Structure formats: structure tokens, C-alpha cells
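User: Predict the full complex structure for these chains.
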Amino acid sequence: MKALDELIALLAKLPGLGKKSASRIAYYLLKADSQYVQTLAHQLIHVRERIHPCRECGSYTEDEICSICTDPSRDRSLICVVEQPQDVEVIESIREYRGLYHVLMGVLSPLNGIGPSELRIAKLLERLRALPVKEVIIATNPTLEGDTTALYLVQLIEPLGIRTSRLALGLPVGGDLEYADRLTLARSLQGRTPLTKS
Amino acid sequence: MGFHSIRFYQFRNLENALWTCSGKEIFLVGENGQGKTNVVEGVYCLSYGTSFRAKKEENLIRTGEKECLVEGVFSKEGDTLIQVRFLLEEGQKRIRVDGKEIRDRSELVGKIPSILFVPEDTQFIVGPPERQRHFFNQTSVLTDPLFLSLWNRYGKLLKQRNFALKQGQQEVLPAFDQEYARLGIEITLARKRIVETFGEVFSTIFGEVSQLPIPVSIEYLPSWKYEEPKEVLRVLQESRERDLRLGTSTSGPHRDRFRFYFGEGEFSTTASNGQIRLASLVLKTAQALFYTEKTGCRPILLLDDVLLEMDHPRRKRFFSCLPLYDQAFFTFLPDEPYQTYLKPTTRVYTVEKGVLKADG
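Assistant: Here is the predicted structure of the two-chain assembly.
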């Protein structure tokens, strides 16, 4: 069945899906209520048409500028730099951070052809000059590329007289030491925090 | 302690069977090409999650088949059992430890520590610098659980940095340099520490086995002479133009050198072939001793065809200098005097056309 095979091949391209899962989904869609399938297809197209990156921070929005960038109660002296739009959602879900965001849309990786001009770095510098920013929190992933990108940004931001910081690395809260991997444990030892005040 | 059993399935020429390998010393006896080294290779795969001789891992799969498996049950001190499964299928490698799939080989390394002795080990003494770096990396991995992650991270960074150099992406290089210097210094310091203590063990054992009055030593020549990031960053800055022109990182731990001295000169110029061979055996023995000294654990020894060219008195002395081990696998040709090395805990297995048969 050519149409079914094509659908399976397309679904298998989605992140986290292998051929087996793709085929399960395709057979499920064949059997599912036709109203559901139509709504799903419509939503897939709708999402692509309506949602686009925010002109300022780069996270996804249905408007030209996202609700976080336009929210007057947000602290404009803080910008949190993340790799992908979905990282904004993750940090927002903890309701701990009240500053602004900036999405890079990736990290530096010469091997994959991603240099500074492929990322939204020029826009970040433009915003830092326009806004009363005092601190930039770099929240790229703790990977080799994420770390290098953070170091690259620090070089650009420091001359502007703005403080930079990086998310702390270490053990997960509520986790057991015995389940921590060696590198995480080593990093948390290096980055240990003092308990005594003096 | 050691392996209780190993199951081979479509692995090289070995018969599909569950092999009960009781015995502290396991002597694998057979003519060339019968499968002795394949058994040793299987044990190595369970220990390191990779082969020591297959250029492509699919070569481990028996010709004409699509998958292969080695599975071993190993007992550690305190009688804890570990089950390791090494599976190659559809071009993918899957390693499971106690039923749980591991993502990174570094999670396996160290669980069943083994030291391999092969004739090619002479390359560690007289071969190209990359072989010597490989030897000291191996030694570091055995004694420092973080070294493999550190080395892998450095390798990834080196690839990215070299690519940026090739592309002439000057603006990102300072960012790469910082982490490059930090990781590189960590590796340099780890190597310095290891050569210092390891060199002593090596020269003591060499004296005992060879009975030669000639002193041996190891010298570490790091690519970077500095231990401060600031100074290394300056070196990188100074070599920037050359690095850009050549499109590669011309300095860093991947360019480190090690020299093995035999008396006044290097082994390659002053020692005989026999002395080089002996030194390579001693080097591995020292590695095992060093491992036990640092960790308090005993390794598995895998000795493949390394005793062949040694005369009888030296062989005997070598046996008496062997480090403490949990289990040791030896390969012998049928006409070698292996009977004289038997201990009460030794089991002899004949290997013929991939079939393992217990003697007696």
C-alpha cells in the first residue's frame, strides 16, 4: 500500500519515533474516527501557518511579539538565553523566573555548519543595547557545544558591562548519589556550594 | 571470582554454545586459526564493549550471518554476579549490564577490568607516538573513572576546533580555546601523575624479569609545558596563524609524546627485539600491578601468544612476576611446554575448529 508506506516513512522522521511506532500510529489513524483525523490534519497545517518566532526573543508565538516580551510586569534587567523555543516553556513551568528570554535557535557547531551568523546572536546584542539589562543568564545545555556557545557569548557580552551567569550543574534534587553518573558527580563536587557563612 | 560462563552465538568461528569456564587460570590450547584468540577477543568485548583487533565491528559476526552475541556471567568480590551482554545486530551495538542497556561504553569500562597482552604491544614501546598515547590513556582509564569522559570530550572538542580552523572561522576560536585549554591541562596533569608513579613500577619489574643491569625509564614530553590556562591560551594565540594555515590544532595533548629509555638511549635504538618484547610484557604487567595498587581490585589477564618468543628461564621469571589476578586466560600452541606452568587451579581447554573442549 503505497499511501500507507509513505505515511509511515513521514511519521518515522518525527523525533523519538522509530519505524515500529510510526507504523502503529499510521494503523491507528486508519482506524480512528474521521473527524479526529481531520482535526489533527487541520491543526498540523494551522500550527505552521499561525505560529512563528517572536520578533524580539525568538520563542514561538501567534502574535508578532510574544506575551512574555509584552508583559510589563517582567523584569527587563534579566535575560535568559536558551537554545530552543521549547526551553522557554520548561523554564516558565517552574514559575521561578520573571525576566525576559532570548532563543538562539541552536548552538555553535562548526562540524554541522552552525556558526555565529546562523544563530540569533546579533539580535541578542541589539536587545542588550536597547534594554536596561544588568544580567544575562546563559541556559544553553551542558553539552560541549552548549558550553562553547556560552563562552562565546560571554566574550561578546562582557565588553557591554553586563554581568553573565550560567545555570548551575550538579545533582538532581531528590536524587540518590548512587544513581548519579560520574561526570555529573564530578561537576557537582567541583561546583559545590559552601554552607558555612565565613 | 572471574567468569563462570560465556555464551557465544555466531561470534567469529566459535561454536554456538554456553561455555562453562571454571578455573582461575584458563589455558586455551590449539593450533593457529582454531579460535583461541577469538575466545580472548570475546572476553575483551565483555570487558571493554569493543574489540581489540577488529577494524570494523561487523567482522566479529560469523561470515554469512547478520548478528552475533557474547554473554558472560562474572562474579566479583563478595560473590556479586554481573551479567554482561554484547550484541551486534543490524549494524548496531547493544550492550546490557544486568539486563539494563547502557548508552556509553564508559559505563561498562571498569566493571570487569581486564588487561590484554598481545604481540603487537611492542608498538607501545617502539611504535608511533599515537600508540604510546593510547597505552597511557588505557592506564588512565583503568585507574581514573573520569578519564574516559575527559578524553572523549577533548576529542569531540578537537574535531569541532579543527573544523573551525579549516573553515577559517576566527571569531569562534577564542571560545573553543578556553575549554580546549582547560580539558587539555587536565589531561596533561593526569598524564604527568601517571607517568611518575607508573615509571617506577615499570623499571622495578623490568629489572626483576630481565635480570639485566641496564636501567629503564619513561619520560613524558607534553605538548604544552604550562599548567595555567592563561599561559596555554597565549600559546594557542601565538600558533593561531599556523593552525589556521594548516587547518588543524598543532598543539595539545593529542600531540604529547612519551619516550622509553633503555640505558642511555631509547629502546628503539639500543634494545634488541627480544628486549623490546620483554619490555612490552613488563609494561602490561606493570599496568595490572598499578591498577591493583590504585584500586585495590584484581584484574582479569588476557595473554594471547605473548610467551612464544621468550626463553624458558625468562618465561618462568615472568610467571613469577605476574600480578595478582581474579582470572587469567592464556593461549598456547600444542607443542609449547604449557604443562609445566599448570597450577592446581588451572583448567586446560583444547580449541579446535571453534569448539572448546575441557581436557581431562
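The interface with chain A takes residues 106-107, 145-146, 149, 153, 156-157, 159-161, 163-164, 167, 169, 171-172, 174-176, 178-179 of chain B (CB under 8 Å).
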